[in-house]
Task: inverse folding
């Protein structure tokens, strides 16, 4: 099945926020953009009642998830594997929720985002990566990771495109709230 032929609407979808932690974020190229777009996606997912998951990579060494993301996503299992499916209970939670496609946001694109996307694709999930909501320390790493993921079958998009695909129509009962988030967008 070609993921480009399928719209990734809110139905059967989830958002996975990957390792947006204090010590990591400080060194990310365009960190403000990554954080702002990730916040946009989380807020929209919560408005639309799309399940939101998050992970932290070795929080003892890299610190916790940054505020205000931490306030929005209280459950953030720690992991040592670079892909998120090594986080306790995540694989089971996706299956139990009937998730078919996962939108990824966070850091770093060429490590944890890429490895998570590849694992999800291998398990049969459709994967979407909004390019403006992921980052790496160096732009070249982000660029080539996104190229690789697109070749592997992930859909590379933008945060705003994700929001409008999730809502599908201006007739969506929560569209005005989503539209309001888009108008507040800073990056």
Result:
């Amino acid at each position: 099945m070609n993921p480009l032929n399928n719209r990734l609407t809110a139905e059967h979808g989830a958002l996975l926020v990957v390792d947006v932690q204090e010590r990591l974020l400080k060194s990310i190229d365009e960190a403000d953009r990554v954080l702002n777009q990730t916040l946009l996606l989380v807020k929209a997912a919560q408005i639309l009642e799309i399940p939101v998951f998050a992970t932290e990579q070795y929080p003892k060494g890299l610190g916790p998830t940054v505020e205000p993301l931490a306030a929005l996503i209280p459950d953030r299992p720690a992991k040592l594997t670079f892909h998120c499916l090594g986080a306790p209970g995540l694989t089971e939670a996706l299956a139990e929720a009937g998730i078919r496609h996962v939108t990824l946001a966070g850091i770093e694109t060429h490590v944890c985002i890429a490895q998570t996307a590849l694992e999800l694709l291998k398990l049969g999930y459709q994967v979407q990566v909004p390019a403006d909501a992921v980052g790496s320390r160096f732009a070249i790493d982000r660029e080539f990771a996104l190229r690789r993921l697109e070749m592997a079958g992930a859909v590379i998009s933008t945060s705003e495109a994700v929001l409008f695909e999730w809502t599908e129509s201006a007739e969506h009962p929560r569209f005005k709230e989503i539209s309001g988030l888009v108008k507040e967008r800073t990056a």
Remarks:
- Residues 31-47 form the longest helix (17 residues).
- The chain has one domain: 10-184.
- Residues 10-184 form a domain with the Rossmann fold fold (CATH 3.40.50.850).
- The mean pLDDT is 93.
